[in-house]
Amino acid sequence: MTNWYSQHFCEHPFQKNGFAALNSQFAWGGMENQTLTSICPNCWSEWLIAHEYAHQWFGDMITCDTWADIWLNEGFATWSENFWWEKTGGYSAYKNEINYDASSYLSSNPGWAISVPSWATTTPGVNTLFNYAITYAKGACVLHMLRYTLGDSLFFATMRSYSNDTNLRFHSARIADFSEKVNMITGDNYDWFFAQWIFAPNHPVYANQYCFENLGSGNWDVRFLIRQTQSNAPFFTMPVIVKINFQDNTDTLIRVMNTHNYEEFVFTFKKQATSFTFDPDNEIVLKRATLTQGVFYTKTWTGALSDDWNVNENWSPTGVPASESVKIPAGLIRMPVVRNHGMSCGSMLIESGASLSVSAGVDLSISGTVIRQ
Ligand SMILES: [Zn+2]
């Protein structure tokens, strides 16, 4: 365990280490005193030791600066506890533990963020600060999703750089110290990751849709619409992996960056797709998700500024929509104008930068929802 943690973080930071089992007056599972961890009676279990020992790095060597930074202690130790299983049972053993933590969070999420800034000066109740679902389970899962987002090379480079930083070793750290480390190592800006997963509550609720379209001549489109429907959290930007299986028994994994709601991806193949899976390895562990097959809009506006809604050639496929769901795409200024004949359609997606204008006195009938990006 010393070697495993030393390889991935930094050399064990103290000259010695011990564990002491206490009597039943000790109310906790373990307490990570520097170099001498306390554990409860008959608690000598591998997972608890892995957790408490990881605290020698995250908690004892680098201590959370305020209670608002408790993630740097408990989230890291809980993730490290899972990471120990990767040493003994391989990646799937690690991932099983992460999935277990995700279930714990999803089944009992109390709805606050991992870090609330006011905790820096006003200490919350112990059941808030050390809430298992948030501080431990969600905390570990967020570190896993950072690993997934960055990839192993950049993630472990970040962990090593953080652990070896002489400004932080044997001092304290704030979450910003860690997120700045991520930005420095990657040469990119990941503040959005921390804003949504650490400083905002809850998780994404996906209601995704896909469809297969036969383009003829053996060509097929796979269209994928990513929707997030949660109202108790902002939109979550995340890399998303999809798996597509084909009629010839081959398959492919595609990774895309989902940066806004109602984002659509279209993949074209020279073979027929037969099945579609969203996040097949459950890398975005903190989520709820549904996936439905079906066409989410059947017509796309291809006209330009001030062209008329009621002209067949302004739509793809050609023909004026009646009850179909339609998309007014971004790109060029796309502004269909409804002049004389009225207009009806199902749902309508108006992408950012596009719009629709209707002359006074014209009948308007939309049976579904109008979505503006
Ligand atoms: Zn702990």
Q: Main β-sheet, in a few words?
A: 5 strands, mixed
Assembly state? single chain
**C-alpha geometry:** elongated
- Output the CATH topology of the largest domain: Neutral Protease, domain 2
* Cα gyration radius (Å): 26 Å
**Would you identify the regions where 5 or more consecutive residues have pLDDT less than 50?**
none
Strand order of the largest sheet: 14-13-15-18-21
Number of helices: 9
User: At the fourth CATH level, what is the homologous superfamily of the largest domain?
Assistant: Neutral Protease Domain 2
- Mean residue pLDDT: 94
**How many domains make up the 3D coordinates?**
3
Q: Structural class from helices and strands? A: alpha/beta
Helix content: 25-40%
- CATH domain class name of the largest domain: Mainly Alpha
Approximately how much beta-strand content do the residues carry? 25-35%
Q: Which series of helices and strands comes N to C?
A: HEEEHEHHHHHEHHEEEEEEEEEEEEEEEE
User: What is the correct CATH architecture of the largest domain?
Assistant: Orthogonal Bundle
The overall strand count is 21
Span from first to last CA?
49 Å
Bound molecules: zinc ion
